[in-house]
Amino acid sequence: MKLPYTTFPTTAYIQVFAQNTNGVRAYAKLSSGADRIDTVVVVAGVTVAANRWSVADALYHQGKDRLYLTNLTRNQVEVFNLADSSFKPAVIVGSRPWGITAWPRNRAGTMVIRF
């Protein structure tokens, strides 16, 4: 299904119904009796297979246009290059990396990645 959105992120409101075997439709209700309407935020992006590993945290580095993902399963930080949608060589960091930060910033305020 193609969404009619051209600006991202954007908010969408979702209302669903159920249909019984007799063909009767009914919208999902809140305990107050009002129709349930859920809110979602739609973003543009791509899905990339992660081959069964668990991400604890992520950090986006604007200067390098890369996303750094802490991989709990493999004890490393995965480096995803957004420019070409590819994974670069991972950085081995030790047991179950949880948390990532860009610190310290240099005197110009530029983010410095440290593992």
Commentary on this structure:
By secondary structure, the chain is an all-beta fold. 0% of the residues lie in helices and 37% in strands. The strands form three sheets. A four-stranded antiparallel beta sheet has the order 5-6-7-8, with no helix packed on it. A two-stranded antiparallel ribbon has the order 1-4. It has a two-stranded antiparallel sheet with strand order 2-3. It starts with 9 loop residues before the first strand and ends in a 23-residue tail after the last strand. 4% of the residues are buried. The mean pLDDT is 80.
Lay out the secondary structure.
Elements: E1 10-14, E2 17-19, E3 25-27, E4 38-42, E5 55-61, E6 66-71, E7 76-81, E8 86-92
Antiparallel strand pairs: 1-4, 2-3, 5-6, 6-7, 7-8
Short overview:
0% of the residues lie in helices and 37% in strands.
Question: Which tags fit this structure?
Answer:
115 residues; mainly beta; 4-stranded antiparallel beta sheet; two-stranded antiparallel ribbon
Give, in spatial order, the strands making up the sheet with the most strands. Answer: 5-6-7-8
User: Major β-sheet, in short?
Assistant: 4 strands, antiparallel
Order of helices and strands: EEEEEEEE
Count helical runs.
Answer: 0
Q: If you average the pLDDT, what whole number results?
A: 80
Shape annotation: elongated
CA-atom Rg in angstroms: 21 Å
| End-to-end CA span | 41 Å
Which structural class do you get from the secondary structure elements? mainly beta
Estimated share of beta-strand residues:
35-45%
Proportion of helical residues: under 10%
Low-pLDDT windows of residues: none
- Number of E-type strands: 8
